[in-house]
Design the sequence.
């Protein structure tokens, strides 16, 4: 009897195709899962860019090679593949100028430039885990520079007017004095 019905041995007896309900549920689950992962990635990217922007905000305007708001251009898809390299290089240059003008010294003379470039290169060539390690290293490094600049001199808003070469608007209260 078993030899007559080989389908029983291989579990193919009475197998019926499932309806569209199971496939639709699986698709919805996958869409939700990918949506959560994309949203999580965007949130991480925003916090990363916020750190970069705030770090540039601690640099005196005369020492910046990039304005803090330009960091947010990295949210533009595809454009960010090139702009992130420019951002990394300009943050490094800005930090070099700021540290030199304040008479401060850093452990890394390149201020994270090579770490940031390696993060981008490994991410682009498909070495995700290695790129992730360099991404975290770069983020921690820039955050450390930001904290050090904050602790040793405050934000660029606290500098004397002599250090800030931006034009100032006269306030009516200044005229009364």
Sequence:
């Amino acid at each position: 009897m078993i030899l007559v019905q080989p389908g029983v041995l291989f579990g193919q007896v009475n197998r019926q195709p499932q309806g569209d309900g199971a496939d639709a549920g699986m698709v919805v689950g996958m869409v939700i899962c990918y949506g959560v992962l994309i949203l999580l990635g965007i949130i991480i990217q925003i916090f990363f860019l916020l750190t970069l922007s705030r770090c540039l905000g601690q640099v005196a305007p005369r020492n910046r090679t990039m304005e803090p708001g330009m960091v947010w251009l990295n949210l533009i898809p595809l454009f960010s593949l090139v702009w992130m390299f420019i951002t990394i290089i300009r943050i490094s240059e800005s930090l070099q100028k700021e540290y030199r003008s304040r008479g401060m010294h850093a452990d890394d003379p390149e201020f994270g430039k090579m770490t940031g470039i390696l993060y981008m290169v490994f991410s682009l060539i498909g070495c995700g885990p290695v790129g992730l390690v360099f991404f975290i290293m770069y983020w921690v490094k820039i955050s450390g520079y930001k904290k050090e600049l904050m602790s040793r001199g405050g934000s660029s808003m606290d500098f004397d007017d002599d250090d800030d070469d931006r034009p100032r608007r006269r306030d009516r209260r200044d005229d009364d004095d």
About this structure: The two ends are 110 Å apart (CA to CA). The chain is about 60% helix and 0% strand. Residues 155-162, 164-168 have pLDDT under 50 and may be disordered. The chain has one domain: 24-156.
